[in-house]
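Question (not urgent): is this output format expected?
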Amino acid sequence: MSMMDLQSISAGIGLFRSLLGSVKDLKEILPKGPQKEQFEITLANAERQTALIESQLALLLGYELCKCEFPPHPMLKSGTIDGTKNFRCPKCGADSVSQDRPTKAITDYDVFNY
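Got this back:
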C-alpha cells in the first residue's frame, strides 16, 4: 500500500468522523424514547468502529499504540530515550520506551549487582 493510499484512507476517516459529529448533534432534536436510545447505541458503535480503524491505520504507518483505554489510540513520537525512538501517549502521558531502570545503590551491598 502506498503512502498516497494511506493518506486517502486517513482523509476518508477524517471525513467520516466529521459526519459522525454532525449526526451526533442531530440526536439532541430527537424525542426521548426507544428510537432515540437505538440511535445513540448505533452512533456509539460507529464511533468505536472508527476508532478501531484509526488504530489499524496507525499501526500500518508505524505508530505505537497506547493501551490506556479501548480501543487503543496512536502515540506521538517524542524523541529518543537511550537511542531508541520513543512515542508518548497524548492522553495518559505513557512512553513506549520503559524508563523504569534501577539505579545503582551506593552501599557495601549492591542489590543491583547481578
